[in-house]
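Sample 1 of the test manifest.
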Amino acid sequence: MTDLDLDRLGDVWRQQPDPAELERLRRTAATVSRRARVALIVDAGVAIVAAAVVVLLVLSNPKVQTFALGGAAILLLLGSNVRQRRLRRVELRSLSGGTEDMLDQSIERVETELKHNRVSLAAMGPVLLVGILFAGAAESRVASLFPAAGHLPMFRTLLVGLAVVIIAGAAVFLALAIRRGRRELERLRAMREAYRHERETTTS
Amino acid sequence: MTTAARGGNGAPPFKAIVADYGPLISRIASSYEADPSLREDLTQQIFLAVWQALPSWRADASLKTFIARVAQNRSISFVTKQVRQPPVAEIPEKLEAEAPNPEEHAIESNEREMLMEATRKLPLPQRQVIILVLEGFTYPEISEMLEIAPNALALRLSRAKAALKSMLEHDE
């Protein structure tokens, strides 16, 4: 029984891919970097448009209620943006670090996401209530801008229907995200345990 | 921001990185994911991670080491997210029991494919070590990348070699 010749296996392993494969890799990388650049621009654009819409709505109906709700919406947008950026930074740092640290951080991240999703699911009721209040406050303004549409029963039904679909969709999305998160957490913990076991048995 | 100047930290242009390290990234993706469409997905994710992480690379560190680290870590996190398909690393017995169809067998007859297939069956900590050795990293580099002591690395590598040898012999 001879030992494995890792040098020879390394040569086999590092066989240069054919030109077609290299070209495919180059195309994939070019697409990825282009999409990443576009995503950066879209992210910033969406945040600016969302903030502008909220500001316009508030300015078009300058009441204490709309100021408070608009301010809360902008704070929510800002908070969400900052949170996303922080998560991305942490993820990138963990990607270029040690695997065990990455697994620890991934476990922490998935636990936090799970908690966040659970809280979001539970908060849907109160958020819905705030949404109704906001809609009530904005309704008079909408009706004055679009008097014909405001009195159409079809228009109202469509709006209410759309809102119900969005809320139900968000609830299903959160429920699925929670299930997915639980499974991911199980796997991450199993992998972490595999590394811990390997470390313990190779250092004792 | 252009692909040629991500972060302005002296990193080569992304195009050059792809030309130099694309095959390394492709091999690492292949050693974690057997399914071709998922592998393509993983390769894209690794490229994206490298593109995003590039500004944090320091010029005094080896770029190859940096890319291999990002690729391995991204592959591991990718595997944990594949909820429908259990990670092959954790259940080698099940995979060994699966008989390949004739087409798969024809592909696996290639030595490189056999090696790749056997590597995919290794438990994750051992797989990481073997991949890095096969990629030509030195033992001190691997110790540093995996943050383990040299003697622990030697033990882990010895186990990985034994497991790989047994699998390769089993496949022949």
